[in-house]
Amino acid sequence: MRNDSLNKANGGNPKSFKSKKELSEYIISAYDSGQTMLDIAKDVGRSKIYVSKIIHQVYDEEEIKVRQYDKLRGKNKFDFSKYKSTSGIYRVSFVENKRNGNDYWSYQYYENGRLRRIVSVNLYKLKVIVLDKGLDWIEFTDEASDLVLKYKETYDESSLERQNKTGFFRVTKRKTNTKQGFTWAYSFKENNQLNFVSSVNISTLKDKVLAKGWQWIELTDEATRLVEENSKKLQDKN
Q1: Distance separating alpha carbons of residues 21 and 237, to the nearest angstrom
Q2: Angle between the 123-132 and 157-166 helix axes, to the nearest 10 degrees?
Q3: Three-class secondary structure of residue 237 per DSSP
Q4: Are 69 and 60 in contact, with CB atoms under 8 Å apart?
Q5: How many Cβ atoms from other residues are within 10 Å of residue 19's Cβ?
Q6: What CA–CA distances, in Å, run from 202 to 141, 144, 149, 221, 236?
Q7: What is the pTM of this model?
Q8: Does 181 have pLDDT greater than 50?
Q9: Are 86 and 94 spatial neighbours (Cβ–Cβ below 8 Å)?
């Protein structure tokens, strides 16, 4: 009776499902396809709260916020006020690293249904990378625009070139006498002390970095694929 009443209130005939798992899978699939929570709720004959709980089991609040903003922007391109980020810049947030003080700026967006991130310690550099990828960069406030220009004063163009060579945060290639001719090196300075690890295998380097509690960020899809392929090769050898 409860579902029948809800269905009448929703004004339609909801889809039927054999199990909660099947219902949950449908909700996530519909959400990934771009439907709103309200539309999905009407479609399956459940409350918006129920649908929201299912979606929150898969996506965190920040991911949902980005998606909701994109949907709103698709309906009204100039209605930015409701989903302004705390940074004053579309899709951008400032990430504080309390562990070691290496704070950075993060730009989040969706590509083929997957959440992607672009990061940089320099806000203007982040803007350059984002625009170079053909993504939207929107500064909501004058304060945000002023901050971007302030970071431009310390922007080093060569740092962008170094970053794009590997596709990994803090990672460079160093020439060595190894069979492949180089090793992967991860390094950064903290309290005037150089932190450094290296490996001939990129997936092994990732394991070493994470074991030390340091940040590991793959900045491109190519970088992610390289880690996965390298990891598979190592597993096949073992």
Answers
A1: 37
A2: 60
A3: helix
A4: no
A5: 8
A6: 40, 36, 35, 15, 16
A7: 0.42
A8: yes
A9: yes
| Nearest C-alpha neighbor of 70 from the set 102, 97, 32, 101 | 32
Q: Quick one: average pLDDT of 52-59?
A: 87
- Note whether 173 and 166 are within 8 A (CB): yes
**48-56 helix and 20-32 helix, angle to the nearest 10 degrees:** 80
What backbone phi and psi angles, to 5 degrees, belong to 147? -65, -40
Which residue matches tokens 């004959």?
45
Compute φ and ψ for 155, nearest 5 degrees.
-75, 130
Nearby residues of 231 by Cβ (< 8 Å), 6 or more positions away: 203
Q: Taking Cα atoms as reference points, which of 210, 115, 127 lies closest to residue 168?
A: 210
For residue 218, pLDDT over 50 is answered with yes
Contact present, 55 and 28 (Cβ < 8 Å): yes
**Band of residue 30 on the pLDDT scale cut at 50, 70, 90:** confident
Nearest to 138 by CA among 148, 150, 151: 148
Rounded to the nearest integer, the mean pLDDT of the chain is 78
CA dihedral 176, 181, 183, 184 (to 10 degrees): 140
What are the contacts of 16-20 at 24+ separation with CB within 8 A? 17/44
The 3-state DSSP class for residue 34 equals: coil
**Residue with the two structure tokens 């771009």:** 34
